[in-house]
Inverse folding.
């Protein structure tokens, strides 16, 4: 099979012919139809996330068809379409797994990081962490749901847990996750305030087209105080900026797996019971809830398809901010 392979950090991926993987007990072999490109892939390839499996096939927003089953697979049949997300395996017995927090499992393994992922023609996955996909989404449109959508949904859910109403939601960094969660927030009756790189008028127009009531640069303050702020750009300086824009009792959530250092800021920005927290990974509950919600909310993903051979170009376009929505590799 053809696959894009990472051999070391800071190097371009190499397209290589590999032996097809075989499913072990409890695993399914999947013919990959589409795999979205995530900023986490950049963090791995750029060496910002340490200790990846090497050599590694990246990619964790996988849509494909089951073509073979390992022993004891009972959730799927040959020919079923499935999605595979970032969380690829958990132990099921640690204190986190047994308390509904499997996203924090001490021994968790992640697709496209410790487990070979979807930048390939074939991949294997644990059946427990594969999900049926809504028929309303074709393969390319469904791929960004598997991380951008799931992390955006979890970030929004945690953000409004501690807010009395959660009516005004700020979103910092209007990329793949933001363009999906903005639609979820609008479906839930919330107002969306979009923050882009200063001067990014195209990104601001994109946000307004998805229902944002206001869009401006991350160096601006919104016209009203926010109930909660979701941060998807990996820029630590956005934490104090978002706190400044958030009202008393509001919440600031960092939805990324990596962020530059947070600069010091005056305690007054945190005071008055504001909350700062992060999102780590996802749970199967998140996936089940979001994939059921997505068609009801009328989610439309904005995608740019690339052939598998152009993975490095897709990564470069993401790194340099040349995309609206998500890049998707199509083997």
């Amino acid at each position: 099979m053809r696959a894009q392979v990472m051999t070391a950090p800071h190097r371009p991926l190499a397209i290589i012919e590999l032996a097809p993987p075989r499913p072990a007990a409890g695993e399914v072999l999947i013919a990959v139809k589409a795999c979205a490109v995530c900023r986490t892939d950049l963090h791995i390839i750029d060496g910002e996330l340490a200790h990846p499996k090497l050599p590694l096939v990246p990619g964790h927003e996988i849509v494909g068809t089951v073509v073979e089953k390992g022993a004891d697979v009972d959730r799927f049949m040959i020919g079923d379409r499935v999605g595979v997300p970032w969380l690829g395996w958990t132990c099921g017995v640690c204190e986190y797994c047994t308390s509904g927090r499997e996203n924090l499992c001490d021994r968790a393994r992640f697709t496209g990081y410790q487990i070979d992922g979807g930048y390939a023609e074939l991949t294997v996955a644990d059946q427990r962490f594969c999900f049926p996909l809504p028929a309303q989404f074709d393969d390319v449109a469904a791929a960004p749901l598997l991380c951008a959508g799931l992390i955006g949904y979890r970030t929004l859910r945690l953000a409004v847990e501690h807010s009395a109403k959660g009516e005004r939601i700020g979103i910092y960094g209007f990329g793949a996750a933001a363009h999906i969660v903005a639609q979820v927030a609008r479906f839930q009756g919330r107002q969306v305030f979009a923050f882009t790189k200063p001067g990014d008028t195209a990104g601001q127009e994109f946000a307004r087209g998805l229902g944002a009531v206001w869009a401006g640069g991350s160096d601006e303050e919104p016209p009203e105080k926010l109930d909660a702020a979701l941060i998807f750009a990996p820029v630590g300086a956005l934490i104090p900026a978002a706190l400044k824009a958030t009202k008393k009792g509001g919440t600031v959530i960092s939805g990324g797996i990596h962020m530059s250092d947070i600069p010091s800021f005056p305690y007054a920005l945190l005071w008055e019971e504001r909350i700062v927290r992060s999102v780590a990974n996802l749970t199967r509950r998140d996936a089940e809830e979001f994939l059921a919600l997505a068609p009801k909310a009328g989610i439309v993903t904005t995608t740019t398809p690339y052939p598998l051979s152009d993975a490095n170009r897709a990564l470069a376009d993401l790194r340099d901010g040349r995309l609206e929505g998500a890049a998707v590799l199509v083997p």
Notes: The mean pLDDT is 96. The longest strand covers residues 27-37.
